[in-house]
């Protein structure tokens, strides 16, 4: 089904005063708090505003004019809190507007250029938008064409990029009817009937011709009618439009161009027919072509869910000419073993050790032998008998060995440096040693040219901090698997998005000036809302609306509010915020259990189980008797590296009695926005003139060990499924990229070989120092 509405379609004309009032309702105010009721409703108001101007090009153009005026007004008043919401709303309207005059492009471009003098993230957003407006001004409709082509995976030779949205939901949060409504909202097509690839091609041709020719030289309704009657022939015109637009972009980058309008006018005449060409060049109403939502797949994050396998299936099905359909057995054989079997979380190794020799003669009875040689004649019998002993001695069972190479590790390191050059051993800017300033990096400012990848996977996690912890662990295992066998790193560009949702609908907010409490289930979402008003108004508001969807839309969602907001989020959320994944080594009491290596993203809690029930009593008693907290808890030794803004880190060690500690990786206020860990004790340390224990310890490397016989219980990212008991000590440090670890291991191996060849008497000393 193909439908494009003209001016006299379903949407009536909206006045500028009505648009102005709607925009004022969307903008954040200085007195708004992240949990205010009005702030939560702004996401719905923004969605209603875009729906109000849809299917009417005059309304869209009026919205662009009003938004430009409001953006210039906010710039004059230095109202930075309103700049980003206005700019994102404006850019989203520009992409979908049928035709925009050149003077409006110039006004938007001038505003974006002036944002370059503002601090982060305004300068980064202004640079990105100014580049996009400059390209859109020279080649109108190119952003719409590229976005629709990539999101719908339209086959062409001129823009071979493909995108896919994977929505991952926490089953603990979305259980029962809410999960069913969310699944139907995301996976059900937004149109009345599913759109075919030819329908998307018609939209591209219609929008580009209108954006370039305008209402004076293009009759929108006649063009839409001609495209609808064309059938399969529309694909050839789609390919021609793609080639013309991409060639115009290349010419504009070289300072050339000018042939775009003439070529598209010729295509317009061919489409509408030579008879109606003269009449069609007269002014007429344009048709609105709203962007359809991209392809999305909804997944509940179960224990057997594997991101690497999901991306591998999508890549192989998208890169093959025929549909990718294999049985489960063939699929497992093609994609290899599961990630859990390949990479256990508690060991690091680069090869497998077989339990048997691999020789068929040594296999146990009943094992399947290898196929014997076929005899084609009497003359071959002697050769067969002669070779039988040798084959039984030399033939091996089927298998192969994957040996990590220096090339693989260098590819992973290059990928890490392209995304985060200020991090040593970083992986996509999310892990590594400290490099440079202690403030968190925001925006894309890499000095390394990023290699283009034709596939982009946008992973949207919906849930609380628990699903983020699992996502961090899954991403670490993903990089670990790629370090062993490079397959997806240089083919797929990974982008992560987060929508905070928890079971309790009432917002929970920590008080200012205090650390995030474990009661805040969405600490990372609270941080993003604190630093970005646009995220707080449009994205975090979903966390309070999704749990109510089952009441407002019982059974099945009809308005597709969630999928529309997700589409808006992934299209406009262009500036990344980087978070460090931390590595923790957990050692247990006794010698029966081996140490476990884990990762966490937001929070680590360590407590003594038998003392947890009296913590509240101790806090109440400490108000009356200051030294009551000294007799509670167990003695632990702390060894940590204290971080400072000056970069002069100091190694410290102390012993303290406590019932538990909390380690937070996400700051609770802008004043504490540092890229480090903040550790606090569950009770205030005893204050005396001999005590030097700080109430907050900021560090990136810490080791905690129980000196007494009491064991701890460790919980990662507030997830009860990631709880470890009988813990004696933990060691926390920034997680190094597996590619960096592989490079370091191979380099040490080669250096050791050189030492053996040249100075064999120093081999033992080199081994000892490398082990330390």
Automatic annotation (TrEMBL):
PANTHER family, alphabetized: PHOSPHATIDYLINOSITOL 3-KINASE REGULATORY SUBUNIT, PHOSPHOINOSITIDE 3-KINASE REGULATORY SUBUNIT 6
Originating organism: Takifugu rubripes
GO biological process, one term: G protein-coupled receptor signaling pathway
Ranges of compositional bias, category Basic and acidic residues: 383-393
A Pfam entry, by short name: PI3K_1B_p101
Taxonomic lineage of the native organism: Eukaryota, Metazoa, Chordata, Craniata, Vertebrata
Molecular function terms, GO-annotated: 1-phosphatidylinositol-3-kinase regulator activity
GO cellular component: phosphatidylinositol 3-kinase complex, class IB
Residue segments, region Disordered: 356-399, 752-772
Name of the gene encoding the protein in the UniProt record: pik3r6
Protein name: Phosphoinositide-3-kinase regulatory subunit 6
């Amino acid at each position: 089904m193909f439908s494009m509405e003209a001016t006299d379609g379903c949407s009536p004309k909206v006045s500028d005063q009505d648009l102005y009032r709607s925009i004022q309702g969307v903008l954040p105010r200085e007195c708004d708090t992240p949990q205010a009721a009005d702030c939560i409703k702004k996401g719905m108001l923004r969605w209603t505003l875009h729906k109000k101007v849809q299917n009417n090009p005059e309304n869209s153009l009026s919205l662009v004019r009003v938004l430009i005026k409001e953006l210039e007004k906010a710039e004059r008043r230095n109202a930075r809190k309103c700049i980003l919401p206005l700019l994102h709303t404006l850019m989203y309207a520009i992409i979908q507007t049928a035709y925009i005059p050149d003077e409006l492009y110039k006004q938007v471009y001038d505003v974006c250029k002036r944002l370059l003098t503002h601090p982060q993230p305004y300068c980064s957003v202004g640079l990105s938008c100014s580049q996009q407006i400059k390209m859109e001004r020279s080649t109108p409709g190119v952003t719409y064409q590229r976005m629709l082509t990539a999101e719908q995976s339209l086959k062409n030779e001129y823009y071979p990029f493909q995108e896919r949205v994977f929505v991952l939901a926490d089953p603990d949060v979305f259980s029962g009817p809410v999960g069913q409504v969310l699944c139907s909202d995301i996976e059900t097509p937004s149109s009345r009937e599913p759109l075919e690839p030819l329908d998307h091609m018609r939209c591209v041709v219609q929008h580009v011709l209108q954006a370039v020719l305008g209402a004076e030289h293009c009759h929108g309704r006649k063009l839409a009618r001609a495209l609808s009657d064309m059938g399969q022939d529309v694909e050839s015109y789609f390919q021609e439009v793609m080639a013309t637009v991409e060639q115009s972009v290349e010419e504009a980058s070289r300072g050339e161009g000018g042939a775009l309008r003439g070529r598209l006018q010729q295509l317009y005449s061919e489409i509408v027919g030579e008879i109606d060409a003269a009449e069609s060049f007269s002014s007429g109403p344009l048709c609105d072509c709203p962007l359809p939502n991209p392809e999305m797949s909804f997944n509940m994050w179960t224990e057997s869910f594997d991101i690497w396998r999901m991306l591998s299936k999508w890549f192989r099905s998208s890169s093959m000419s025929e549909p990718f359909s294999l049985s489960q057995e063939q699929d497992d054989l093609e994609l290899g073993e599961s990630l859990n079997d390949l990479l256990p979380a508690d060991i690091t190794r680069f090869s497998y050790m077989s339990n048997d020799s691999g020789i068929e003669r040594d296999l146990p009875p009943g094992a399947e032998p290898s196929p014997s040689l076929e005899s084609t004649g009497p003359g071959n019998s002697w050769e067969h008998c002669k070779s039988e002993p040798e084959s039984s001695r030399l033939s091996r069972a089927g298998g192969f060995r994957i040996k990590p190479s220096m090339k693989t590790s260098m590819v992973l390191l290059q990928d890490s440096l392209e995304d985060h050059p200020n991090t040593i051993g970083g992986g996509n800017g999310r892990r590594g040693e400290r490099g440079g300033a202690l403030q968190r990096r925001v925006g894309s400012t890499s000095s390394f040219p990023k290699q283009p990848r034709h596939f982009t996977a946008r992973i949207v996690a919906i849930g609380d901090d628990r699903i983020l912890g699992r996502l961090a662990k899954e991403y670490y295992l993903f990089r670990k698997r790629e370090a062993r066998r490079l397959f997806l790193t240089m083919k797929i560009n990974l982008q992560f998005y987060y929508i905070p949702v928890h079971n309790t609908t009432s917002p929970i907010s920590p008080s200012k000036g205090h650390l995030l409490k474990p009661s805040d289930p969405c600490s990372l979402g609270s941080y993003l809302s604190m630093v970005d008003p646009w995220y707080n108004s449009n994205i975090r508001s979903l966390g309070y609306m999704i749990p109510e969807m089952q009441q407002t839309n019982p059974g099945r969602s009809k308005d597709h509010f969630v999928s529309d907001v997700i589409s808006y989020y992934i299209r406009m959320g262009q500036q990344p915020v980087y978070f460090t994944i931390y590595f923790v080594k957990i050692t247990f009491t006794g010698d029966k259990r081996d140490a476990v290596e884990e990762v966490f993203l937001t929070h680590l809690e360590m407590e003594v189980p038998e003392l947890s029930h009296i913590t509240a009593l101790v806090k109440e008693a400490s108000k009356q008797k200051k030294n009551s907290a000294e007799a509670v808890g167990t003695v632990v030794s702390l060894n940590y590296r204290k971080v400072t803004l000056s970069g002069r880190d100091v190694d410290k060690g102390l012993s303290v009695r406590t019932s538990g500690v909390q380690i937070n990786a996400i700051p609770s206020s802008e004043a504490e926005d540092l890229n480090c860990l903040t550790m606090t004790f569950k009770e205030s340390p005893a204050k005396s003139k001999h005590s030097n224990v700080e109430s907050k310890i900021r560090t990136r490397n810490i080791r905690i060990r129980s000196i007494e016989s009491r064991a701890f219980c460790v919980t990662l990212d507030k997830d009860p499924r990631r709880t470890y008991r009988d813990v004696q000590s933990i060691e926390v440090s920034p997680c190094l990229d597996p590619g960096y670890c592989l490079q370091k291991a191979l380099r040490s191996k080669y250096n050791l070989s050189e030492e053996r060849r040249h100075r064999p008497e120093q081999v033992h000393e080199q081994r000892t120092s490398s082990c330390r």
